[in-house]
Amino acid sequence: MSPAQELEELLADGEELTIVCHNNPDPDCLASAFALGRIAMAAGIDEHHILYSGDISHQQNRAFVNLLDIDLQSFEPGAVQNRPEGSLLAFVDHAVPGANNRVPEGTPVDIVIDHHPNEGIEARFIDHREQVQYLTKHRQLA
Asked: N or C: which end of the chain has fewer CB within 10 A?
């Protein structure tokens, strides 16, 4: 089964999705959260929330959120703890509870989509592509 099919199957079993951005989200985090929300909707999840901590301080990031009309909500720990069955938790552009996010350590994560170097990622679905970061940086230097 392809990774896309695995993700679709996991989402099809869910009823709601909470997507957590890292602290002070940047464009790749915001775009990933937005895209995962759209993928979840296509898989039948009508209710999804995108949470963030910190600030969206750069003008281009605020413009990005406004132009795409991304519904962002401030992070509240209760949104990720004691979730009901069918409620999925996803991380985009980061991978571990408590590392560059306010999610309490030990919180079970269902979906991780990331490109940063990291060891010990635990989730039901993981799409971890460190080479994407390398390719992006390499192209910027060329």
From this structure: C
Q: Where are the alpha helices (DSSP H) in 1-142?
A: 3-12, 27-42, 59-68, 130-141
Euclidean distance between CA atoms 84 and 80, whole angstroms: 10
Instruction: List CB contacts of 111: < 8 A, sequence separation 6 or more.
Output: 7, 10, 36, 88, 89, 90, 91, 123, 124, 125, 126
Give the domains, in start order, of the chain with CATH numbers.
Answer: 3-141 (3.90.1640.10)
Q: What is the pLDDT of residues 67-102, one digit of tens each?
A: 888 899 999 988 899 899 999 999 999 999 999 999
Report the C-alpha gap between 58 and 116 in whole angstroms. 21
Integer Rg of the chain from CA: 15
Largest CA distance in the chain: 48
Residues 19, 27: Cα–Cα separation, whole Å? 15
Six-digit token pair at 124?
Answer: 């039901």
